[in-house]
Specification:
43% of the residues lie in helices and 22% in strands. With 255 residues, the protein is of the alpha+beta class. Strands 3-4-7-8-9-10 form a six-stranded antiparallel beta sheet, sandwiched between helices. Strands 1-2 form a two-stranded antiparallel sheet. Strands 5-6 form a two-stranded antiparallel sheet. A hairpin with a 4-residue loop joins strand 7 and strand 8. The two termini are 35 Å apart.
């Protein structure tokens, strides 16, 4: 896992956590480590205030223990997430391509359900893989790019570095960045891939299905080998995926 901590122009502290690329690992072990690592800086800030009288190594042990316990609670909550019965049918059976497409027709997911799919898949003998591609804009110099930049829910731009770029340039950079994030379940007989792109998550891809926030689904039944599929991702591409799964906000879905 990679972690960077930034201070924005307006004094905010931003902790950016990025999952490393992994191939055929335990999702449960991987996500426990990631959540624990992500939580640690927050716990650390509080621990150093409350236990400043303790030796450094004691505080480090407290932070490590508490971070792991909180990560376990997050995982326990994920285990309680309810999945549509069709997902179990998909993972438990070696279906044909048309059967897989039929299963996804009319289904939507929230982000917790996506995580629950990977967790349930492990119980069925699937291994977890994760890959990320982030393209560098060709019309900008690398040294001019910000360390970190994002637009919040109130449409306010926040940046760390990149002062030579105008707000308009930064907004274009964020909106047009090519980022592909792929997670795969593989049991040695079949594999299922879930593809997220920035444009897809914003509902800014072409067509009716592309106009709502969504992820793409692809599997070995589409005729591409897993090795070729991963190679495409690493080069910043992915095969045309007919199945678009609407990604619904968890709070909206529960209403």
């Amino acid at each position: 896992m990679a972690q960077k901590i930034y201070k924005t122009e307006d004094g905010q502290t931003i902790i950016a956590n990025t999952m490393n690329d992994v191939t055929n690992v335990s999702f449960k072990e991987y996500i426990l480590k990631f959540h624990s690592y992500s939580i640690a800086p927050i716990i650390s800030g509080l621990a150093f205030k409350l236990f400043s009288f303790l030796p450094m190594d004691s505080i480090v042990r407290i932070v490590s223990r508490q971070s792991f316990e909180l990560a376990k609670k997050q995982l326990a909550n994920l285990e309680k997430v309810v999945l549509p019965k069709e997902i179990y049918t998909l993972l438990e059976n070696d279906l044909k391509k048309k059967e897989q497409e039929k299963i996804w027709k009319g289904l939507s997911l929230d982000i917790n359900q996506l995580g629950a799919i990977f967790l349930h898949g492990e119980k069925l003998g699937y291994k977890f893989s994760s890959y990320r591609f982030e393209g560098t804009p060709k019309n900008l110099k690398k040294e001019d790019l910000p360390n970190f930049a994002y637009v919040d829910d109130n449409d306010i731009l926040h940046r760390v570095g990149g002062e030579s770029l105008s707000e308009g340039q930064l907004r274009s950079l964020i909106n047009e960045s090519k980022v592909i994030y792929v997670q795969i379940l593989d049991n040695g007989i079949q594999w299922h891939a879930f593809i997220r792109t920035f444009q897809g998550l914003k509902g800014k891809e072409s067509g009716k299905q592309g106009s709502v926030p969504h992820i793409h689904y692809y599997s070995n039944k589409n005729g591409t080998s897993k090795a070729d599929f991963v190679d495409m991702i690493n080069k910043g591409n992915y095969p045309t995926a007919k199945v678009h799964i609407p990604l619904i906000d968890e709070q909206i879905k529960s209403q």
